Amino acid sequence: MRFGSKAISHGAAPAWLGGLVLSLAMASGPVGGKPYDAVAEAQTPRAAPSSRPESQKSEHDRSDVFRASESQPSSNALESQPDQGKILDFDFYRDPLNAKKPMQTFEEVMKEDKAAKPKIMEDQRKLLESRYDLTPRFHPDAKMSRGKPIPVGPTARLRDGVTWDSLAAMTPEEIREKGLFPYPALPHPKQATGGQVFPKMQIEMFPRLERFDVEFDLPEAFLPEFPPAMFLQNRPELGDVSRGEVVSINNYYRLFKDILTPVQLDGLRLLLTPFPQEEFNPTDDRKSEQPSLGVTCLDCHVNGHTTGQFHLNPDNRPQERRLRLDTVSLRGVFNQQLHGSKRSLRSVEDFTEFEFRTAYFNGDPIHAMKKGFTQFDRVQVSHMAQMQNMFDFPPAPKLDVATARLDPTKATDAERRGEQVFFGKGRCAECHRPPVYLDDRMHDLRLERFVNEPPTGPIKTFTLRGIKDSPPYMHDGRCLTLEDTVEFFNLVLGLKLNAQEKSDLAAFMRAL
After folding, report:
1. Helix, strand, or coil here: 132?
2. What is the rounded CA–CA span in Å between residue 479 and residue 117?
3. How far is residue 246's CA from residue 229's CA, in Å, rounded to a whole number?
């Protein structure tokens, strides 16, 4: 069984920026009743009223002389040339990405985006409500690593008169012809723009991550914890080292100076340093109201994990063909040999360098250069990779140390039965092999057999260790709970599982 295909973001910092941010990071508590964010502090100018004559706006300052249309040509002979030597059409560097007319200003784009946002989010809400029952139901006992209740399902809505059993009895052709497949692709709310979207709970702590054109669409109940737990493979005896804090440039040194090596600590600093991203940058292409230094690796991979942020995959073109991708957890990345939804990068170091060079998840170095091109030092990249390789899975006390299979003396009856389904009738272990429940292979489920959508091609297997901490599931988050993933694969693989087997299988996966 394959539950996710999600991209990784990384980066490296020039020395001056690291020093600037680090100098601001010593104060880690709230300021003025609001959470302190050193990145926002570094990029926010201060209002400094002054009566000095040199600081006053002059008539020249307010004139139109600076407008491109008022520029005097270099030669009078240009008047007889086509368009008088001017670029009257789109100019990639001058005009915002996806501008509707040449010389459209950032203010015009933002005004249009803000006006369109309510309808965009209302349409997405209606889509989600038509597909899912979004009223959360929680497991009575199971919790995530820091205690958040685990949502249970299935949540997908079936057409009137259709049951899971009757659906499973149909052929793929019947399901497609009747339009009954309950898990079609989950779209980005604003496909034309795409880009990283952060959940509200994270924006409340870091307002710089808010976009004016689109909002997060899934309810918080179906997302990972915030802050998530953080585990280190070099200090397993410490358990969760987050101490209930979101690790940021504000507090990383205080939290980890006596836990990490100097190289790892420097790598963590770089992972917490912002760089321009497709929607968070200093240019008119941005979707944040104020110019931005960008986002950090651990803005998305919070505490080395995730809070369900999503974007578009970089592997496809044209834009409408790109897939929604949830942010993947970095837990256990040391066990993964290939990276990216299409497995096109062969080391953590390569991924670290490539994603920042293309402004995060866009696969386009041309756009990245416009927004702020980063020159990488391979030493910095290696430091970041060393830190990423420290992120570990959460403990799984019911798994045998040698085999990573269930210890029968610690497991419940349901978990033991679920393990039998996992390694037998459910065919899960064909792709999710112990000890990390991952095969480092690509698999094509050919979902186009079931739904009128273009094929996605092969996508990577995602590890199931600690899977209870990582809802929603699949590469685009279309399965909101583990029970939904069980129903998904029961249909796609034609497993013919009964209700008890499905329930037991979900119980086993919560123990991983």
Report:
1. strand
2. 25
3. 9
